[in-house]
Every structure is written in structure tokens, then in C-alpha cells.
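Researcher: Next entry in the queue.
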Amino acid sequence: MGWAAGLAVIGTAIAVLGLVVWRKVPRNVVGLLLVWVGAVVVFVAARDVFLPSNQFFEEGAWWLVVAVALLLLFFPDGRLPSPRWRAVAVLLVVCCLVQQTVSVPLLREPAFGLMLVLVLVAAFSLVVRFRRAGGRERAQLKWLALAGLAVAVYPIVCLVEILITGESGVVATGFGIATLIGLPASVAVAMLRHDLYDVDRIVADSVTYAIVVVALLGTYAGIALTLGLFLGKESAPAAAIATAVCALVLSPLRTRLQRLVDRRLYPPRRAALAAIEDLQRRIHTEQAQPEELELSLRTALRDPTLRVGLLVPGASGFVDAAGVPVGADGGVPVLLGGVQIGLLAGASGPAVLKAVATGAASLVEVSRLRAEVASALRDVAASRSRLVQAGDRERRRLERDLHDGAQQRLVSLGMALRLAQRHLDDGSVDVNGLLDQAVAELSTAIAELRQIAHGLRPTSLDDGLHAALAAITRSLPIPVRLDIGPDELPDELAITAYFVAAEAVTNAAKYAHASSIAVRVEQAAEDVRIRVEDDGCGGATPRPGSGLSGLADRVAAIGGSLSMHSPAGRGTTIEVVLPCGS
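Model: Structure for this entry, 582 residues:
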């Protein structure tokens, strides 16, 4: 009664699994076949309660065999492998009906034999499917192969238990129940979440441990039986010796067997781990670098899209060994000590990448540390370069400020003194006034030199750009017309505009022999424009190291542009555009 109740519970669970599969995939008959299997198991349990044990098998077990065989034929897409397989399905049902309804031995015995053959043919249909299948269907078939492996091992487990204990007991019963549950469970996982676990890894490990368990039981039984002939059937030393021999022989055998099975059933993982081991060996002999991990894995997995991302401090995300960003979408984390240090991304699939990530963790950590050191060295080199460049820029700035500011004021001062000298004797000019003005200009120039030495802007800009330019033009011997629109500009723009106008006006007065100069500064929505025009001789060309060349550098340093139009005999026009963003 207890056995039947347990069987009924198992059958109900199988039927529920079938209903879940059928609800998720309603057009696939696999779910309904699972319901059939569960219903037959419940029926067998119920018949065992009311009929003698020799009759319940006749009433239900044959339909269980048919249901399982049809499940093998229609799994996983709910269709037969080809129309020719319909004959197998029909013959299965016919043979079962013969077993159920015909009592003539001449018909029952051939039907029994044919039914066994048809079950094997149904199992072979999975091999046919596997050869034709793609990635998804192959993964589903591998899940069913797990249950098939348990079915294949079950008779061996029963035989070994009988050899050791003399009867089929707890081990065989427990393994049988696990097998009965394993088939529908594998089918359900394959239909609903075939990509939930690494099925290749599970198959490889299952095959390995199945062989190890069978070998262990066989070795133990053989040694125990042999020693039992000499030491007695219930001899404790015989059991102890058998156990010790099994432990010594089969422990190293499992490792070698795992490698062999991986090579046959899990080639991507094995190839990747072999590549990692080879790279580690070459690194130890100084024949390779840890940064070659990505290339080695690409070659081993035949996946040109594979990327090894490193989690380097200071980076915005994952980067490779060269510092190139690596996308994290679909990547598998690489953990070391429970802390993520990188990721593997590619087309090989998360199952394979997870297996490889564990084996590659140490190399990823070494690569990450080396990348971190390389990044720090690059930062130091860049910092040194910026310091050198900043020093050069500062020297050039001082040179430009001296040339474009104080020097121009001193030139203007010299011209004013020369004018005073010329009119010193004729009394037509107020020489004292000119000298007073010269002294004031000299004081201003000295102040500007002091400010430049301290990296400050000219003090004349304190009163605005118009006042600063007016202070320069007042000392010139030719009239200068100022049209300064914005008087309040950011310091950087005001200083640049000041030096541009000062240099252009001084050049026009000194070299162009102009009779008039016009300076115009206007501010638009996104830029400030400085335009300086004269009516001089024209023909000006900027030369390297000249004042105009320095002005062009100054303007370019803040993202501006300088243009000059100077046709011979028609004056010169210099126009500067400075971005202001407001």
C-alpha cells in the first residue's frame, strides 16, 4: 500500500509537469505525452492496490512503455523526425493492444519482441535528430540524454547490489525512483529552460561519475567476493581491503577519466582550459605574456568575438589589456575570492564562458594588475608631458604678453618722446605735457611688467576694454577710431582682445605708414569679433616668430581664429573671432 501511494504521488507530479509544459507550449504534444506517462503511473499504482501484483503490470505497464517510446519519437519539437517514422508509432500502439487483448501465445510473443525492438528504434530516433539538430534542439536533446544515462546505469546498479548483498534492495529502489523522476524532469527542463544550466558540463560530469561509480562497485564486489572465498563471506578484513583498494585506485582514475570525458563530450571547455594551461606554462618560461589570454581563448574556442574585460581602477567600465573599452552586455563575470575582477564576453555562450572564467581567473587578475600599473605609468607620463607643455605655454604667454603689451606701450612711449624732441626748440608743442604723459605711460608700462611677472592681466583692463585700448591709442601720432561694443567680457577674452588690438594698431602705426586706424569689437550670440583696419601700404605677411604669428597662437589657444587681408597699397584688415558661448 505504501509503495503504491508513493508511486501515485510520483505519477501525479509527472502529470503536473506535463500540464505545465503543455500550457507553455500548447502546440507541442510532448506536454500531453508527459501527462500520459503520469496518468499511467497513477493507474499502475491504483491497479496494484486492487489487483494481485502479477496483474497490474499487464494492465498498465505496457502503456507506460508506449508512452515513453512515443515521447522519445516526438521530443523535442512535437513532430516525428520524418513521415517514415509514423509506422514506428503505429506499430507501438498495435503491439501494446495485442499484449492487452490477445491471449494467443503465437501472437503475443512476436508482439513482445517487436515492441522491444520498436522501443530501441524510438531511442535511436534521438540520435538521428541530434545529427540534424541546431544549437537549441541539441541542448534539449542533451537534457534527455541525462535521463537516458540513468536508465542505462540502472541495470548495472541492480546487478552490483545483488552481487554484494544477494538481493536488490534500497540502492536499486532509490536509483529506480530517481530514474523514474529524472526522465520527466529532464524533459520539462529541456522544454522550458534548456539554457538554465550548463548541460554539457552536467552530461560530462554525469558520465564521469557514472563510470566511476560502476567501476567502484564492480571493483569492490570483485575484491570482496574473491577475498571472501578465503577469509569468509562476512569477513571484515575483506571489506576493509576492498575499500582501501578502491580508494587508492579509483581516486586518480577519476581525474584522468574526467579529462577523457571532457575531451569527448565537452570539447569547448576542455580546449579552452588546455589553452589556459599552455599559456600559463609559456608565461612561466617567459615565452608569453598574460595579455595574450584573449587571443589564446579566441583560438581555442574558435570565437573571434571573444573579449576579456578587466576592471581597472579609474576606468569608466571594463577595458582590455590595451585600455580599449569592452562592453559588459552579455558578459560573464570573472570572480576571484568572491570579488569581480573582469568579464568574458563572446558568442561561445554563457555556459562555456562560465566554465572558462573559473580557470582563467588567475590570468585575468595578473593581466588586470599589469594593466593597472601600465595605466598608472601612462598617467605619470601624461602628467609629465602636461607639465612640460604647461611650462612651454607659460613661457610663450609671457613672451606674447611682453611683446604685445608692455613692449607696445614702450614703443608708443618712444614715439611720444621722439615727437617731443622734434618740437623741443620750436615751441609748437607742449613739451612738458608730453613729458608728463610719457612719465605716466612709463609708470603704466612698469606696472604691466610687474603684473606680467605675477601672471596677472594688464591693470588698464580694470576700467574695461574701451579704456584700456584708449590708453594705448592716445599716445599714437595718428588718429585711431574705437568702436567697442561690449565693455564687460570674461578676462580670457578681454585680455586676448586687448593684445590683438594693441599689436595690430602698433604694427599699423609703425610699419604700414597709415593715416588712420579703426578698431571695432562686437559681441554676437556665440562669439566676439575684433576687427582692426588701416589705410596703410598693405602687403603684410605673417612670419614665424613675428607678432602676428604670436597673436595667431594666442587666439588658437582659446579656440578662436585669426584672418588677415592685406593687399598691396590698399591697407590691412585683421579680423579675429573668439568663441564666448553666450
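Model: DSSP finds 16 helices and ten strands in the chain.
Researcher: Noted, moving on.
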